[in-house]
Amino acid sequence: GEQMASYFGHSVTVTDVNGDGRHDLLVGAPLYMESRTDHKLAEVGRVYLFLQPRGHHVLGTPSLLLTGTQLYGRFGSAIAPLGDLDRDGYNDVAVAAPYGGPSGRGQVLVFLGGSEGLSSRPSQILDSP
After folding, report:
1. CA-CA distance, 120 to 97, in Å (whole number)?
2. Helix, strand, or coil (residue 66)
3. Do 30 and 76 form a contact (C-beta atoms < 8 A)?
């Protein structure tokens, strides 16, 4: 990963998010730390999307970075393929933040697939009751 001790690879899943018939790779790093405007590091977690390119099977630079917003939420601890939840022809995914949400008791964020990959904003956020 891009940071030591970010736990890059803690969660991994494969699904075709852009409908091109090739499997794409999502990798979670729940301890990823973001540099804030006050130059302090904040542990927010991150998910990396690697779209499989045409013609060869080498995955290079991530196509999308999904970064958590809640301090110590552990965004990216688990990633699950959901199939085509909204029936638009593209597979969607869920990302867990087990210490996220208003109460810190857990949160699941749903990201919709599309022709360019995943949406950068969640379509749904499910908080633990």
Report:
1. 16
2. strand
3. yes
pLDDT at 4: 77
Answer yes or no: is 5 within a domain: no
Contact 65, 75 (CB under 8 A): no
Would you list the DSSP string of 82-110?
A: EESTTSSSS-EEEEEETT-STTSS-EEEE
Q: Residue 95 has which token pair?
A: 């990302």
Examine residue 3 and state whether it is found in any structural domain, yes or no. Answer: no
| Residue 108 located in a structural domain | yes
Q: Is residue 4 part of a domain?
A: no
Question: What strands, in cross-sheet order, belong to the sheet with 107-111?
Answer: 78-83, 92-97, 107-111, 124-127
Q: Which domain holds residue 103?
A: 11-127
Q: What is the pLDDT of residue 1?
A: 61
Series of mean pLDDT values for 10-residue runs along the chain (129 residues): 84 98 96 92 96 81 96 98 97 98 96 98 97
**Number of separate domains in the chain:** 1
